Amino acid sequence: MKQIALILSVISFSFISFSGKAQEIDTLKREKKHSVTLAAVLSAALPGAGQVYNHIAMPKGKKKAYWKVPLIYAALGTTTYFLISNQSKVNALRKEYLGREESGLLFIDPAYQQYDNNAILTLHNQHQTNRDLMILATAGVYIINILDAAVEAHFVNFDISEDLTLKIRPTVMQGYSPGLSLRFNFR
């Protein structure tokens, strides 16, 4: 009976030690590599989220990604504001021109009474061009946000230490030609 208890205790202790090692190995396997794709997808879903994801993953002392979020929203807000503003001007000018054409009056909206029909068309075209440029600018800011998150995700674990150096010094080559000497140190 004592032998059976001894054998069961040895077996149980061996399972505990094996499960502990398996848990250590499993923990090492679960340690995730920082995902570039996830950073880009997060920024595509919610602008700035990829930058926050990169900021959280960076080691202490190198965190610097969060400050871009207000800039992203300021740029998106500004371009969207001008897009909406130009679109409302386009609609107002279109309404003014069509109202003049249908009614035969000189002006419909007192804000445009100093403009003739050709000036209204010119203003309409200018605001329409500005609206189209703001659509491109908004899309550009959105795409740059995604690209920034993806590029920065590549550099989350990038090593910038004193051991990585480039030294440029003047030298004389072949005894009489001046030149530059480049020296790279990699750890």
TrEMBL record:
Keywords: Membrane, Signal, Transmembrane, Transmembrane helix. The keyword Transmembrane applies. The chain crosses the membrane at residues 35-53, 65-84. Residues 33-186 form the DUF5683 domain. InterPro entries: DUF5683. It comes from the Bacteria. Residues 1-22 form the signal peptide. This is DUF5683 domain-containing protein. The lineage of its organism: Bacteria, Pseudomonadati, Bacteroidota, Flavobacteriia, Flavobacteriales.
